[in-house]
Amino acid sequence: MSLSAIANVDALRQRAPLAVDDHPLLAIWELTQACDLVCAHCRACATTRRDRDELSTAEGKRLIDAVAAMGTPLMILTGGDPAKREDLVELVAYGAARGLAMALTPSGTPLMTDALVAAVKDAGLSRLAVSVDGPDAASHDAFRGVAGSFAESARILEAGRRVGLTTQVNSSIHGGNVDTIDDMASMVARFGAVLWGVFVVVPTGRAGGDLLLGADRLERALERLAEIAESAPFDVKTTAAPHFRRVLMQRHSPRARVGVVREIDDHGVYVGARGITDGVGIMFVSHRGDIFPSGFMPVKAGNVRQDDLAGVYRTSDLFRQLRDEDALGGKCGVCPFRRVCGGSRARAFAVSGDPMGEDPLCAYVPKDYVSGAPDRSVSRI
Predict the structure, then answer these.
(1) End-to-end alpha-carbon separation of the chain, Å?
(2) Are 243 and 362 in contact (CB under 8 A)?
(3) CB neighbours of 345 closer than 8 A, spacing ≥ 6?
(4) Quick check: pTM over 0.85?
(5) Are 229 and 236 in contact (CB under 8 A)?
(6) How is residue 133 annotated by DSSP?
(7) Are 13 and 274 within 8 A, CB to CB?
(8) Which residues contact 122 (CB under 8 A, 6 or more apart)?
(9) 217-265 residue pLDDT tens
(10) What is the per-residue pLDDT across 73-90, written as a single tens digit (0 to 9) for each?
């Protein structure tokens, strides 16, 4: 698979818009929960020690086989810190040999040495993604809980570039850094990354509600990201903020990568390619093999040690419900952009306990919507 396709999952969806009902476009495997950082928002509640019940190397290879067999093109190895596992290079090589585009998200620690970066590149790694959560060491290190993490992250990114890997910067946006978006965008450009992955905090794991942005503040941040995306030397995508695509469409931005006019019907409802969000084009496998719609939505649908991975994605009640935009509640259920967006299911679940509830951090109000009375006839096809 081409690196340009890895850079933007939208490109994959455009080539096969119905594929998300058959298989996820990306599968994420949490190799371990162990990590030496103490991040304020850690969904994994990471500890320094590895869990004895982690999937073994052999079990991991069977998981990789299952991901490849169901047609998923991209696999992301994450953690915790994947560099905590001694079989990391072996697993990257195995996935690449199975035809998967393999991506890696190491923690900004000394464990991801320059030699290890070179080794995973030689093993067939396609993308190296590193988290940087502030434009400078002070802001990033405070959020990650360990002094020197910013410098380690910058070193890892440079080591990746040096050996010919394409690199990506991931940033979690919250109340403490949202006002530094412009400075962070400049930092991403300096790092030479091809993609800026912007994560909007979901209150799960260590992340508390104090890290959440208000809906209006997030909307302004998404509008600014859309402006940046129109001229930046890198792509911009969001996680846990699918309404970014709605913002791009409203701006008629070329970065929306969808036909704004031809894919909206006579009722003003978007009918084009599906947006990618929790359980829709994505699945997450924990270090113990539990299968979730995403890393931010801890609702278990099965376990790879006893369940068929493809079967869980295709037929489980949870995944099928998440892929049914007609099952959305609140204003998400009547939103004309519900197909391209659908709201963050993880955040809806975290805040209300209902995975199909409305996303509390979306400022958009559908025409004629009356709060508390989600009449789905308002904007139906």
Answers:
(1) 35
(2) yes
(3) 277, 278, 279, 293, 294, 297, 322, 355, 356
(4) yes
(5) yes
(6) -
(7) yes
(8) none
(9) 999 999 999 999 999 999 999 999 999 988 988 887 665 444 333 455 5
(10) 999 999 889 999 999 999
